[in-house]
Amino acid sequence: MTEQLVAVGDATLCAETFGAPGDPAILLIAGAASSMDFWPAEFCAALAEPGRFVVRYDHRDTGRSTSYPAGQPGYTGVELTTDVIALLDGLGIDRVHLVGVSMGAGISQELALRHPDRVASITLMATSAAAPRPKGAPPLPPPADRIQAMFSDSGDQPQPDWTDRTAAIDRLVADLATFGGSVTTNPAETRELATRAYDRTADFAASQTNHWILTGDGPPLPGGLADIAVPTLVLHGTEDPMFPLPHGEALAREIPGARLVPLPGVGHEHPPRQVWPIVLPAIVAHTAGQ
After folding, report:
1. Which residues of 249-281 are buried (b: 16+ CB within 10 A; e: fewer)?
2. Which range has the worst mean pLDDT, 83-87, 244-248, 285-289?
3. How far apart are CA 286 and CA 290, in angstroms?
4. Which residues are known to be catalytic?
5. Could you tell me the fold of the domain covering 2-286?
6. How far apart are CA 83 and CA 248, in angstroms?
7. Can you give the pTM of this predicted structure?
8. What are the distances in angstroms from CA 215 to CA 32, 104, 219?
9. 33-72 pLDDT per residue, tens
10. At residue 25, what are phi and psi to the nearest 5 degrees?
């Protein structure tokens, strides 16, 4: 694996690559407030082994990418999407398979509509429609009570001292458990992930704050879900508390030709190790021959 810093406009993103540059490229896009660490190196290496050039990267304000003061992001939500194209240009990648989780999957949908010439396929995990749904589509279920409570009470809940390493890691571990399903990652592994993410991030307060307060929607999308014309795979946890399974079912139904693979017991999270035997072959098959 090779780590490098890539200039993207007024920022610098930290990216890491696995595999041979001549193989079909897969870009892994993490969720909000998540660094590349949420795509474990072992997962990336296993995805690269069958002949894929795998890239993971830190969003702005996460990991080793450009950081801004907490509460004062020097960018809008638009940049998190346009950063992807700039990153691909910097890495010399013309066409890519996008694999995104939550916000990363929303970015993938937008790029499939705005830049179909650069996108070979999309894989959408733990997400919902980021583009207009077909007229008359039925409403989708809301988040679980524990997620609604987490967001509605956020303004009243005391925030940890993000400079306190132990307190910050404890809070991240607790938040991951809130979003998780019954297929749980080994607690020691979860703490190791949280520790690695904390230690790699320049300003952890910014990483846990700025993505949630971004503004700016950019120009209107040039279409809706029915206009996504790239091959689409939907991987969705059966116990996702943020976007219950009907959200994934709707994506698979409303994006032409999309295929749904349910992930038993998985919540709103990057794929736990227990379902890698489902996730890895599905992505490899989806990204073959394109």
Report:
1. ebbbbbbeebebbbbebbbbbbbbebbeebbbe
2. 285-289
3. 9
4. 102, 240, 268
5. Rossmann fold (3.40.50)
6. 26
7. 0.96
8. 14, 17, 13
9. 999 999 999 999 999 999 999 999 999 999 999 999 999 9
10. -90, 135
Domain residue limits, the chain = 2-286
Residue in the structure block whose two tokens are 């490098």? 4
Res. 289: pLDDT tops 80:
no
The string over 81-107, giving b where at least 16 C-beta atoms fall within 10 Å of a residue's C-beta and e elsewhere, is: bbbbbbbbebbebeebbbbbbbbbbbb
- The token pair that represents 224 in the structure block: 């809706």
Half-sphere exposure at residue 63, Cβ-oriented, CA atoms within 13 angstroms: 24
How do residues 134-147 score in pLDDT, each as one tens digit? 999 999 999 999 99
Going by their DSSP bridges, the two strands 11-18 and 2-8 should be labelled as: antiparallel
Cα–Cα dist 242/32, whole Å: 13
Look up tokens 């999308």; give the residue.
Answer: 221
Q: Are strands 119-125 and 53-57 parallel, antiparallel or unpaired?
A: unpaired
